[in-house]
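Changelog-adjacent note: as of this version, every example in the card shows the full chain rather than a window. The one below runs 357 residues end to end.
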Amino acid sequence: MKFSRVYIFCILLFLLLVFISEYRMPKHFRWEPTFSHNDKQPFGCYVFDSVLSTSLSQGYTVNSQTLYQLRNLKEPHGILLIAHEMPELTKTDVKSVLMLAEKGHRLLLVTESCGQTLEDTLRCHSYNKGTTMPLVQYVKKGFGRDTIQWLADERYDSREYRFYPQLLNSELNPDSRSCRLLSASGCQKTDSDTIYSRIKAVSFTIGKGSITWACTPLIFTNFGILDGSNHEYIFRLLSELGGLPVIRTEAYLPAVQTAEQTPLRFIISQRPLRWALYLTVLVILISMLFGFRRRQRVIPVVEAPQNHLLEFVQLIGTLYFQRRDSRNELLQQSNKYKKIWKKTTKKESLSPTSQNE
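Full-length structure tokens:
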């Protein structure tokens, strides 16, 4: 019993050490951009969507409807689309974008590339001129940040925001006569005018609505919304949606990135279900530990041996009776009595009284 207690104590101590080591182990982050609503990694949108759902009082939802399906919206909405690079849009999708804007919807396209067809329609193209060094390595070496300047307009004053270059890989080359410049990461002032280079966000007025294009999708992620005070830059771009109810669509993300989670991942992602799983595993382990104890077997009842001498005598008597061999029995009895008589006479002859006589 003492050995069992020591064994159980060692098992519990081992499990406790494993739990502490796993809890204190540094988190392993994946830096691949997914922009998925369920992704809690730096370049996912789980935290981003949570912040916007609580900050935008007019409403914020995430779905997988395409631009063609969103044309059925009756009331004006703000439509947010975040993707690393949008696939080449069909003519139907491009017509849907223009129709949504003409009806009064406000679109915010946050992507490095909108596809050749839509770029030609908006007369604005993007170019990728980012750094090739990974973000983690760049930060470890202590390199500085680049600056994005919000251009002054009737609502906001001019202000600078500092981001890592890996988040600013692309820049826009629009026809300035057909759009309104919102932000840029470089400007040169001359005597007559200010020349902006590396434009990051522009806005087009179409019909009753507008289309805003920002080529910095990595900023609209969990990492970007938690990067110091840079969330203010995100909300300035979101203000282009005009205070309308916002719908973010994931229809143009790769299928691998928008795949549903496995049941186990869903259970772990929900706090009540996660603790229910932990308690279930703990109960199973405790039951296994108690099952290791040695169990006392049932002692069987041992009956005392019975005296079968009487049955044996009856069996022998019955045997002689059936054989009717009384002569053999009489001889045995006579021999027996002879032996007894001889022993008795011998003892009498050796006694002192007989010698005196």
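Structural remarks: The domain at 46-254 is CATH 3.40.50 (Rossmann fold).
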